[in-house]
Amino acid sequence: MTVAAIVPAAGRGERLGLGRPKALAVVGGLALVARAVDGLVAGGVDAVVVVAPPGDEEAVRDALGARRAVVVPGADDRVGSVGAALDALPGDTDVVLVHDAARCLCPPEVVRAVIDAVRAGHAAVVPATAVADTLKRTGDAGVVTATVDRSGLAAVQTPQGFDPATLRAAHERARTLRAGGGPVVATDDAGLAEDLGVPVVTVPGDPRAFKVTTPLDLAMAEALVTAGPA
Ligand SMILES: Nc1ccn([C@@H]2O[C@H](COP(=O)(O)OP(=O)(O)OP(=O)(O)O)[C@@H](O)[C@H]2O)c(=O)n1
Ligand SMILES: C[C@](O)(CO)[C@H](O)COP(=O)(O)O
Asked: Which residue numbers mark the site Positions MEP for the nucleophilic attack (predicted)?
């Protein structure tokens, strides 16, 4: 049986602002997408499907170097990009992870914990961390309308793990909704599974699995790599 991972790397990285896909940004001499794949393999993933920006498949293959991965073209948003990779999963996949290329420093322990939880029988698993800031709801002109009780809230990361039938069913539903003109508001794959009524369980996340989104995040990633293992 195979533990497979889909690595959505087809985003344009507008907030990073490099003028090229974020997955190709380099930290410590290695592209984010290559680092993300290395972390997955170190955590026990056997097969990887990387989703590249359409037209940049060759650049993504170059960035991956000798790493074994199937590269497929992505779509306009993350849901579409993950959906585009499902057909490329190996037929004997029994655990499938979805992991943002942008979370390039996720420690292998987190990957292993997600795989173990799926193997233990959970159909959908997310790494979660506590919310450190106080949360406010805001209205017109940014005026605070309420303080949100954060005690029951968690920030979720990737890799998110699924039994393959659940991930396929979740994306099939999203595709059908879209075809009918309906909205798909989930910002992660677990959200699509929740929409199916599937219970989603959490395992401990890790601050190092932060998502490189802005130039400050890229500088933080570079500093962490330079500092060495924490
Ligand atoms: N159409 C898309 C959009 C996003 N992603 C991937 O989903 C992950 C999380 O997305 P995000 O951090 O928002 O990346 P970007 O979309 O590139 O960022 P931005 O919104 O700043 O353009 C990234 O690894 C990104 O490459 C994707 O595969 N396909
Ligand atoms: C999937 C994700 O990384 C989980 O936290 C997040 O939802 C991605 O959000 P984005 O707006 O597509 O960056």
From this structure: 150, 211
- Residue 164: HSE in the Cβ half-sphere, 13 Å Cα cutoff: 18
The number of domains in the chain is 1
The whole-angstrom separation of Cα 169 and Cα 94 is: 15
Nearest ligand to the CA of 214 is: 1
Closest ligand 2 atom, residue 100 Cα: 3
In angstroms, the CA 217 to CA 230 distance is 17
Read off the CATH number of the domain in which 210 is found: 3.90.550.10
Q: From the CA of 78, how far away is ligand 1's center (Å)?
A: 6
**Residue 201 CB coordination number (10 Å):** 16
What φ, ψ does residue 209 adopt, rounded to 5°?
A: -85, 20
Quote the ipTM score: 0.97
- Mutation pick for ligand 2 pocket among 6, 100, 110, 192 (CB with most ligand atoms within 8 Å): 100
The pTM assigned to this predicted structure is 0.97
Phi, psi at 204, each rounded to 5°: -65, 130
C-alpha of residue 11 to centroid of ligand 1, in Å: 3
Return the sign of the alpha-carbon dihedral for residues 37, 153, 215, 74: positive
Range of the domain at 81: 2-227
| pLDDT, tens digit (0-9, with 9 covering 90-100), for 57-115 | 999 999 999 999 999 999 999 999 999 999 999 999 999 999 999 999 999 999 999 99
